């Protein structure tokens, strides 16, 4: 499970390529590891890279192989994993961006149904700052219900946000 290198063992399956090769551990290498942990969670504890040897894992990653989406994993979540596994560490999302992406997924469950590859790149389709798609909701109340926030219905109404279009154009 671990690869011994001068200075200690490295958990190869969870470690970013640059951390294995240069022993360079950064927030970006932590993001890689976070992506692997997300994959483990979504696969209900399956072992990353299954029965591959550590050397085979290192070689496969270097050749561009990435773990496939676990069964029933929402495409948007797998895309986030793939973003975490960018070879160039500068291309990986930062943790605050990951929090924002996951927050958007929680607040707009329809984003979990977006097929992978339908959005053009920023780091992740969910980092796109464009207007969210409210076409599936007929009312603010229905939307709030879908994101488990129906207790705020009166607040939205009192503030004048009575249509999904009004919510889309809301500013902080």
TrEMBL record:
Single GO BP term: axon guidance
Membrane topology, record value: Single-pass membrane protein
Domain SAM: 135-172
One Pfam short name: SAM_2
Lineage: superkingdom: Eukaryota
Domain Protein kinase: 1-106
Protein localization: Membrane
GO molecular function, one term: ATP binding
GO cellular component entries: dendrite; plasma membrane
InterPro entries on file: Ephrin_rcpt_TKs (IPR050449), Kinase-like_dom_sf (IPR011009), Prot_kinase_dom (IPR000719), SAM (IPR001660), SAM/pointed_sf (IPR013761), Ser-Thr/Tyr_kinase_cat_dom (IPR001245), Tyr_kinase_cat_dom (IPR020635)
Keywords, comma-separated and alphabetical: ATP-binding, Membrane, Nucleotide-binding, Receptor
UniProt signal peptide: none
Entries under PANTHER family matching the protein: EPH RECEPTOR A5 (PTHR46877), EPHRIN TYPE-A RECEPTOR 7 (PTHR46877:SF9)
Protein name per the record: EPHA7
Organism: Poeciliopsis prolifica (blackstripe livebearer)
